[in-house]
Amino acid sequence: MRAFQRERQRGHALLFALFLMAAAGLGLFFLFSAGQITADKARVTNTADAAAYSGALWRARVLNYDAYSNRAIVANEIGIAQAMTLSSWVRYIKILAQNINQYTQYIPYIGQITSAIATAAEYASTYTDYAAKVAVPARDVYKQALAGSQEIMHASASIVGMKMVVDSVTQANDPAFRAAVVLSGDDFTSFTRRYTDNDRNRLARVVLDSRDGFTRDRPASPFPLPLSNTCWIGFGIPEFKKRGATSLASLDRWDAVDTHSAHLKYRRRWSCRSREVPLGWAGDDAAGSNDGGSSFARNDVIGGNFGNSAGTNGSAHSYANSEKEELNGYSGISVVRELDYPKLSNRDDPRTRFAVMVRTSATRTADKVNLNEGRMKLGDSLQAGSIASVSAAEVYFKRPEPALGGARADGKEELASLYNPYWQARLVAPTDAERAEALAWKSVN
Q1: CA-wise closest residue to 250 among 324, 319, 304
Q2: Number of H helices, E strands in the chain
Q3: Taking residues 364-378, what's their average pLDDT?
Q4: What angle, 0 to 180 degrees and rounded to 10, lies between the N-to-C axes of helices 2-104 and 110-156?
């Protein structure tokens, strides 16, 4: 009787074993699916972060290129002004030496010295005039090329260009991943603009403020003597006044003027009068096709008056104007890229966003690879059978910390502009609009 009961009890253990095997199988399927989902989620998140950061970093480099090229354009404008300054100043020395030599050439010993100086000044003037005629068009072509290169760089940072950057990063992480650029909040196309027409005044002010002292204004009053400004004895000792400057007469024209005159005070009847005797003069003019002026302007575009040459040495200034050297090949202040300040939400701390979406082609869960059938299917609930991630980054302006050698000499904070290459990139949290667009893209792709 006991042996018969033992035979009947052996079947219960088999049923329990089958149940455990089914549970173990489901556990293995679950662990496999969970592992695949976790791995794909980490990989797609890292890929999205890398793509978003790479895209923002490229745009930061484009803005830094704008800053470097704008600085180079300013340097070339200053180079044009300095070439004209040297040409005008040396020619003024030549004319001054020639005029002095006319009166001293017959004086023993002194005449030989002044003749030698006049000859040397003529040679120097010939070479500097030639150098200016070469430097002005050469530098103008170079700055035009720099301004044009800015547009090429910005084309590479357009949506089409950024899609290529994102795809390159995504494919490097996993060739099976797919990516797209989020259009929500992408304001890079309106973040900057080309400053044309009268908006070039901004660049003109930067150029004029960057001039060295000799280019900006070169006055002198040599040999000041006590009686040079009086005529109480019937006449005064001559007062010598040197005036000159190089500046923008308009946005499409540089002028350089150098004049030197002797001013004599003398008494006529009961009044004291003055007479100007021009001693030296010279001038250079580099005008673009948009400038219709033929004479030296009284003022430049920011209010300068060319060292007050016209007001102080009027006769010599007229001679300089009539005998000025025309330098060809100048096109005017360049059209460059700058921040579009009216469209910035925060002018003190402007930022531009960039976001991407990355998804797997298909996550290999147990259901996807058919490891389980029928009632053994877990149902992974993956939308479109894949995992997607959205990441965002922003481009911002920040001068390096003082510890890294980036402190300003005046201790002030550097404000954002396209004249200093301090644009950087960093990851930020995606917005709700970017997440919604990512969800919609995943649903249809």
Answers
A1: 304
A2: 8, 10
A3: 48
A4: 160
Q: Alpha-carbon distance 33 to 441, whole Å?
A: 24
The residue that leads in pLDDT, 157 or 297, is 157
- Higher-scoring residue by pLDDT: 414, 243: 243
Structure tokens at 135: 């430097």
Strand partners, 267: 272
pLDDT band at 270 (very low <50, low <70, confident <90, very high): low
Whole-angstrom CA distances from 65 to 206, 365, 419 are: 18, 46, 10
CB 263 within 8 A of CB 273: no
CA dist 217 and 211 (Å) reads 9
CA 247, 253, 256: angle at the middle one, nearest 5?
40
How many angstroms separate the most distant Cα atoms in the chain? 163
Q: Which of 247, 252, 255, 257 is nearest to 208 (CA)?
A: 247
Residues 296, 300, 303, 309, Cα dihedral to 10°: -40
- Structure-token pair, residue 319: 């001679």
355, 409 contact by CB (below 8 A) = no
Q: Are 316 and 395 in contact (CB under 8 A)?
A: no
The whole-angstrom separation of Cα 202 and Cα 335 is: 11
**Total residue count of the chain as it appears in this document:** 445
Residue 426, strand partner residues: 394
Give me the phi and psi of 287, to 5 degrees please. Answer: -120, 135
Q: Which amino acid is at 57?
A: L
Chain segment 374-421, per-residue pLDDT in tens: 444 444 555 555 678 899 999 999 988 765 566 677 777 888 999 999
